[in-house]
Amino acid sequence: MDIEKFQNLHLQVPSPIEEIFDPLWTEQNIRILVKRDDLIHPIISGNKWRKLKEYIHLAQETPEYSLLSFGGAYSNHLYSLAYTGYMVGLHTIGIIRGEELNITSNPYLHQMSQWGMNLIFISRSSYKNKEIPKEISHQKYILIPEGGYSDVGLKGMKTLADELNYDIHADYLITAIGTGTTGLGLSQYISTKIIGILTLNNLDEIHEHMHEHSIKPENIELNSAYIFDKYAKNHEILTDFCIEFEQKHQIKIELIYTGRMFYGLYDLLKKKYFESGSTLVALHTGGIKLTD
After folding, report:
1. Cβ neighbours for 26, distance < 8 A, ≥ 6 positions apart
2. In degrees to the nearest 10, what's the CA dihedral of 227, 232, 236, 242?
3. CATH number of the domain at 66-139, out of 2.60.120.340, 3.40.190.10, 3.40.50.1100, 3.30.230.20?
4. DSSP assignment string, 8-58
5. DSSP structural state of residue 133
6. How far apart are CA 48 and CA 69, in angstroms?
7. Does the pLDDT at position 292 exceed 50?
8. CA angle 185, 246, 225 (to 5 degrees)
């Protein structure tokens, strides 16, 4: 199936925009709009679709090539890739961290295998070096870096930027930062001030990515105050926040990305970081599997 036909038939693109309310910001005369990329599709939601689409285009132009990428045993990225490959008729390969695993180790790995993804399990040391196993080294493939970060992934943010530019005239855009693909990609296509809430201790890596793509620091503000650490107490705080947020706004978020992003946004609002009268867009980048 052609990728554009697949999008038109199965995906909700453009994704909807939903305003949320709370005395915390209404008393400051601030509006918060949530760009619901999590509603694009139950499986390939959010920035997963945005980052994959351009790779699917490339693969459909060269059908003799497989799409190959890396991920852990519960990777949303690989799960989305496997499903998309199945739906559009492309061969996919997933390199999985952990040689002790197999396709029956969890329901996600089993489902990816059912969708036709060739799963190959390698040691953690080999995974760290992103080694391509010998049994497939002779095959033709298009490599998608872990998490989708690349020039192609950054380009995939243009359609999201077009939607934001068309629908909303916002003063700030708030997004979670993992590999940086979403935030850095958007910074090349929109003039809105972007605040990236880091979810990993990888600030140096993000700065390197910015240098690679000549992204000026004034185009995106990186905030590393809400990464949280490994201590249970802090994770209990974040877990409680995610539960309370869903109860209040009927929007599901998860601990790794959107939970940290919204927690950071709430904290910045408590500190009166934003000017009165501002309109903020919080980007919900998905991450919630259908089976969660």
Report:
1. none
2. 40
3. 3.40.50.1100
4. HHH---SPPEEEE--HHHHTTT-EEEEEEGGGS-SSS-THHHHHHHHHHHH
5. P
6. 13
7. no
8. 50
Under the phi-then-psi rule, with left for phi > 0, alpha for psi from -120 to 50, and beta for the rest, what region is 282? Answer: beta
H or E segment to which residue 126 belongs: helix 124-128
**Residue whose structure tokens are 């132009």:** 61
Which residues are CB-contacts of 245 (< 8 A; sequence separation ≥ 6)? 251, 253, 259, 262
Give pLDDT tens digits for 170-200: 999 999 999 899 999 999 999 999 999 999 9
How do residues 96-126 score in pLDDT, each as one tens digit?
A: 999 999 999 999 999 999 999 999 999 999 9
Which fold is adopted by the domain 3-44+151-284? Answer: Rossmann fold (3.40.50)
Using only the alpha carbons of the chain, give its radius of gyration.
19
**Cα(195)–Cα(273) distance, integer angstroms:** 12
- The C-alpha angle 259, 273, 269, rounded to 5 degrees, equals 45
